[in-house]
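Kindly review this protein for my students:
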Amino acid sequence: MSLYSNAGPYCPTASPMFHRFSQFSSKNKTATQRLEDFAIVGWLALFFGGLMGYQGSPWVYASFSVVLTLVLLSGIYRQTSYGYLFLVVFLWLGFWLKLTVHNIFQYDYAEPIGRFDGSSAAWDEVLWVATVAGMGVFLGRWLYTFMTRGAGMQITLDSSRVPGWYPSVRRIIWVLLVVITVGLAALNSIYGIQQSGLAPRTILVWPLNGVIYWLLSTGLSMSVATLLWWDICLKKDISLSIYAVFGEAFISTMSLLSRSIFVFHIVPPVLAILRNRKLLVWKDQRKFFFIIMVLGILFIVSLSIVGTLRSYLYQSNQDFRSTTQNRITRLQILQAVIPTLDERVVIKGISRLGVLEALVPIVETLVTSTEMDPAERQRKIKLHKLKPNVPMEAQLRTLVLEKAWLEKHLPELAIQAAIAKSQHRIDSLTPQEDKFFEDQFQDLVIEKAELEQALAERKKQTAIATVSWEGKSRLLLDEFGYQITTGLGSRIFALGVDRWIGIEGVMAISSYPQKSYNLFFAALTERSGMGGVPLYQKICQSIYQMVDMSKYQFASLPGATAFFYYTGSLWAVLLGMLFLTLMAIYCEYLVYCLTGNVLLCALVGMNVANAIAQLGVVPRQLLIHLGMLFGAVFILWLLQSSTLAGIYRWVFRSKIST
C-alpha cells in the first residue's frame, strides 16, 4: 500500500510482472506496455553484456543484478514515496548501470578507487556489499509499510491550505520571487560567493555565504513549488507559471556551475505534475508539447553554458578550451609511452619494444609464482600474450597494471628474481607481427609531432587573443560551440552513467585493509576545514588531495553504502541503509502532513535521497542540511496555518479600527 493510497494519479497501480510477461507477444498493446517491453529487452541486453565483461563469479553478478533491479522496480511500481523512488534510482544508477556499462565498454572509472586490484575476489566483495545495501533499502520500505499498516493519504486540492492573503497579492509574490532569484544568482556569479568546485572569492558575514548557497541550491526551488501548488489548489491555469520552475532551475544551475542542479530542480516537480495531471487546469493542452520542447532546449543549453564556464574557471592554462585540453592530455600520454617503446632507448639491456616484450614473461613468471586457482592462472597467462591486432599502447597499460597488482602478492626478492629471469626477447613474433608493431610505433611518433606543432600554434594564438576582452569572448564562444556540439554527447553520457555516486566508493573502501568500527566513527565525527584533507580522500587516493584548496574545492564522495562499509561489516551496511531509507520516507511524510504539497514532497524527497547517495565526507553536515530544509518547511506550515491567518486578520483589523 502506498503512502498516498487512493491517491488517484499519484499512485498508479501496475499489472503484476507475470501478467506483463504473459502479454509480451500481444499485438494489442498500449504505449506503456510497449515501453515496458522495450525496458525488459534493454535490461537483458545490458545484463548479458555486463556479465561477459565481469571478472568475478557470474552467480554473484547475477544475484547483484536481480536484487538491484527488483529494488528499482519496488520504487516504480506501487510507489511508496518520491524520496524512495529517487533513492532506489540513485542506487541502481550508481551501482548496477555504472558497473554494467563499464564492463561492456571497458573504460576507466571516473572516480578514484584506492588500492582496488581488480581480482575476482575483490569484485565479488564489492558486489556483495552493493547487494546487501539494496536489500537494506528494500527492507526499509517493507518495514515502513508494516509499521503504518498501509495507512495512506488522499490527495485533494484543498484551497483552505492556501493563505487567505495569497490570491490578492499573487502576481506581486510571483514577480518578487523572480526578482529575488535573478538577483541572488547574479550576486553569486559576480562575487563568487559559492560555486561548485571553487573556493569562495567573497566571504560575507556569517552565515550569509551558506544561506545564499542554500537558497540557490534548495530554497528558491521550494518557493517556486509552493507558489505553484497554491495556484493548483486555487484551480489556476499553470500552463504559464510552470515556466517559473524551468527558469529557476536554469538560472540556479548557471550561477552555481552545477549541471546536476538543473536535474534535481526539474525532475521532482515535473514528475509530481505528470503523476497528478488530472487534477490540473490546462487551458490549452497543446502547450504541453511546447513545454517539453522548451525543457529539452534549456537542458542542452544549461549543460553547454556550465561546461563552458567550468572550463574557463577550472583550467590554469591560458587556453581553457576543451579541444586544447584533450590534445594536451593525449600528448602527455604519448610523451610517457613513446620513450618506453622507442627502439633507441635501452632499458636493462633490452632494446626495441623491449619493455613491452619483457613485461609478458615478467607477468607469466609472477602469475606462476603466485598462489591462485590453476584455471585463473591459465586465464591470466593467456590474457597477457602479445596480441598483434591490439594497439601496443593499450597492451602496455594493461601489462603494467597487472604487474603492479602481482607485485603486491609476492616478496620483494621473488619479484627481483622474476624480473632478472625475464631479461630476454620474445622470439614468437613473426616478421608480419614485428612490422605491425613498428608501424604503430611510427604512427605514435608522427601523432606526437603533429600535436606538439598544433599546441604551439594554439599557444601563440591564445596569447594574442587573451590580451583583449574581445579575444577572450571569441575563445568562450569557441568553447561553447564545442560544448553544444561535439562535447554534448559525452557530457550527457557522463551525466547519465558516471556522475552517480556508488560503486567506486565501495571499491576503494573494500580494498582498504584497516576497516573497523573505529574507522567508521572517525569518519562519522570528521569536521570540515579549509585546507584539510578528508579521510576518504586519503583512502581512495584522490588526486584532489593535491589541488590548491585555496582556489578549488573538489572532493571524491564514497556514498552511504561505502560509508557504512568502513566498519567492514555487511550487517552495518544492511542496517545503515535500512535506517536511511526509513528516514527518507518519513521526511517526505512529515512534509506532506505539514503542507499537503505534493510538489514540495517530491523536491524534499529528491533532496534527502541525493544527500544519502552522496553521504560520506563530513557526514555531520547532513544534519545541518536537514535542519535548514525542515526549518523552511516549518515556515511554510506557519504561512499556511489557519491560526496564523487568524492572527494576521486580527492584527490587520485592529490597525484599521485605530
User: Anything to note?
Assistant: Residues 387 and 562 are 37 Å apart (CA to CA). Confidence is low (pLDDT under 50) at residues 5-25, 340-360, 365-389, 405-429.
